[in-house]
Design goal:
The structure holds two protein chains of two kinds.
Chain A (H helix, E strand, L loop, with lengths): L4 E12 L24 H4 L8 E2 H13 L3 E2 L2 E2 L2 E4 L9 E4 L6 E10 L2 E15 L3 E3 L6 E4 L6 E7 L6 H18 L11 E11 L9 E6 L2 H20 L7 E6 L4 E4 L12 E2 L6 E2 L2 H9 L5 H10 L5 H8 L2 H13 L3 H18 L11 H12 L5 H14 L3 H8 L7 H14 L1 H8 L5 H12 L6 H14 L2
Parallel strand pairs in A: 13-14
Antiparallel strand pairs in A: 1-11, 1-12, 3-7, 4-17, 5-6, 5-16, 7-8, 8-11, 9-10, 12-13, 14-15
Chain B lengths: L4 H10 L6 H22 L19 E2 L9 H5 L5 E2 L2 E4 L5
Antiparallel strand pairs in B: 2-3
The chains are: A alpha+beta, B mainly alpha.
């Protein structure tokens, strides 16, 4: 009988924080500056320079910990992780080892491909990033230390995920949370949200974990899925052929879609962690925690629930609207001015997001503000304009910034609901299409659509379709 | 002897020290003596004493998240043995 395998995945995510300055010195963290222009004795690792902790980094860690259901440690310490590499000027990385700031958290994930489940978060700790290495055409490697000492949170999950789909669901949720909190810009390509995946397989029913490989270089959600799927298949094949998985780091090659062993340069890891004597212990009082908790924004999961339960939106709408904070804020501002959540949701998910994407602007800078859009929706609901004409009004407002009422008046888009004016159009249409009239009266009732279309066309879209329908029916009946 | 030459060679490797055979022998004896001294400390009864992370009885030294002027690339590279434009240059680390 063929052995069935179970995949086991644990994730380590490095979240780069959006603080203005580095974790232990006042150098700027701005991205894309000229090499080594944002350095000082502390982040260059010059002898005698002393690190001082950035308070905002601690705030960001507490926020993230609370948002992921962690326990915030009242007492935590920094440690030195010792290794040599040219991007690490001090010869050690300041991190947390024993006594990290957050522990024992969890996130609930769900998706179409798996049953809802809770993924444990082992710990979240604060640490400094390393510099950047360039391996260009020259004989040596080049070092830029602008990134050295920028603040990171490392979020370590339990090995609770059983498929790439679960891993992606966890990552997307964590990503949403840190972006919502404003502690991270969430840019995967620029490395602001970096994921390493520990992947192993074991025969179904086996309790102990298989040997894992650590996958790196996963800088998009798509690559993460590809890399995990490839790695699972590789490990199963290897075992089936009588081989053994070795514990190692493997790099994902996005062009080939495969993972490759990082051979050669890697040494045995022996980091000799010890408490950093340059940094005092960190004590976080309950008051501090309460203060941060009170200032937390409503998180995407809470928003989704509220949109469904209080606003009566379908789960799909709630998920789309809550996924990004600026979209949620636009939607909420709109509902505040036009209390018809489903109509608002349709317009935000449809017209607004499409236009924002087409014009490549952020929703926060959308020229059709929630107030202007509320003006359109009001005119749809009082039958001044049809839903179709409303889209024309939307485009016109996008261009001009004028109000819906101004646009409707200027362009003469007011819906014709005056039966006298419509009667004339209807008579014209009936007179111009005698064959269709005969067929309709002979029982071909679906021709009603044709007549309505003709009248709408004659009115240049401005006729009230409901009224046209009613009047046409009456008029045609008179012909029998 | 608790410490062997193999231990010393391993630690020297982590610290990127190249030791001659004579140095290795010499240092093995010295490290063993040092650890013997630490053993003496282990004789103390430390039950119920919280591990010390720092010698100073203080906590929470912070800075505000305010940008302070950096020293600039030229100063940063002033003591570097090798530089290319504004980069430090080191022996190539990957093939």
């Amino acid at each position: 009988m063929k052995t069935r395998y179970e995949t086991v995945i644990g994730l380590e995510v490095h979240v780069q924080l959006t603080t203005a300055t580095k974790i232990f010195c006042g150098c700027s963290t701005a991205f894309g500056q000229s090499p080594n222009s944002q350095t000082c004795p502390v982040c260059l690792g010059l002898p005698g320079a002393l690190p001082v902790l950035n308070r905002e980094v601690v705030n960001a860690a507490i926020k993230t910990g609370l948002a992921t259901n962690c326990r915030i440690a009242p007492y935590s310490i920094f440690a030195r992780k010792n290794y040599f590499y040219p991007d690490l000027p001090k010869g050690y990385q300041i991190s947390q080892f024993e006594l990290p700031i957050c522990e024992h958290g969890w996130l609930d994930i769900s998706g179409e491909e798996f049953d809802p489940k809770r993924v444990g978060i082992t710990r979240i700790h604060m640490e400094e990033d390393a510099g950047k290495l360039l391996h260009g055409a020259s004989a040596g490697s080049l070092v830029d230390l602008n990134r050295a000492c920028t603040p990171l949170l490392e979020v370590v999950s339990e090995p609770d995920m059983r498929s790439a789909a679960e891993a992606i669901a966890y990552l997307k949720q964590l990503h949403q949370i840190v972006v919502y909190l404003g502690v991270c810009d969430g840019n995967l390509e620029e490395g602001s949200f970096r994921c390493d995946a520990n992947v192993s397989v074991r025969p179904v029913g086996q309790v102990e974990l298989g040997t894992r490989a650590e996958l790196k270089n996963l800088n998009s959600f798509r690559f993460i899925k590809q890399a995990i799927d490839f790695e699972v298949e590789r490990q199963i094949e290897l075992i089936e052929e009588g081989g053994k998985v070795v514990q190692e780091t493997r790099l994902f090659d996005p062009d080939a879609g495969v993972t490759r062993s990082m051979r050669g340069k890697e040494q045995a890891h022996d980091y000799r962690y010890f408490p950093d004597p340059d940094l005092l212990p960190l004590e976080v009082s309950q008051d501090w925690i309460d203060e941060v908790r009170a200032a937390l924004p409503e998180l995407p999961g809470q928003k989704r629930q509220r949109y469904e339960e209080d606003l009566g939106l379908p789960a799909y709408d709630a998920a789309v609207l809550a996924a990004e904070r600026p979209v949620a804020e636009y939607f909420e501002a709109l509902v505040a001015q036009h209390n018809h959540p489903k109509l608002c949701s349709n317009w935000v998910m449809g017209e607004v997001l499409a236009a924002v994407k087409e014009h490549d602007v952020t929703i926060a800078s959308c020229p059709v503000t929630p107030a202007l859009l509320a003006g359109i929706l009001k005119r749809i609901e009082d039958n001044t304009i049809s839903g179709k004409i409303a889209k024309t009004v939307f485009s016109a407002i996008w261009q001009s910034g004028k109000s819906a009422d101004e646009v409707i008046a200027e362009k003469g888009l007011k819906q014709v609901s005056d039966s006298g004016a419509l009667d004339a159009l209807i008579d014209e249409v009936i007179a111009a299409n005698p064959t269709e009239v005969t067929e309709y009266l002979g029982g071909k009732e679906k021709l009603m659509g044709f007549f309505v279309g003709q009248v709408m066309k004659a009115s240049k879209g401005k006729a009230n379709p409901g009224l046209v329908n009613k009047l046409l029916k009456e008029r045609l009946q008179q012909k029998t | 002897m608790k410490i062997t030459e193999k231990d010393v060679a391993y630690v020297a490797g982590l610290a990127r020290l190249a030791l001659s055979p004579d140095e290795l022998t010499d240092l093995t004896g010295k490290m063993d003596a040092m650890l013997g001294y630490v053993d003496k400390l282990n004789q103390l009864n430390t039950d119920g004493i919280v591990p010390t992370a720092h010698a100073v009885p203080m906590a929470n030294a912070f800075r505000d998240d305010q940008v302070v002027a950096s020293i600039g690339a030229a100063a940063a590279l002033a003591n570097a043995p090798l530089g290319v434009e504004d980069y430090f240059q080191v022996p190539r680390v990957i093939e």
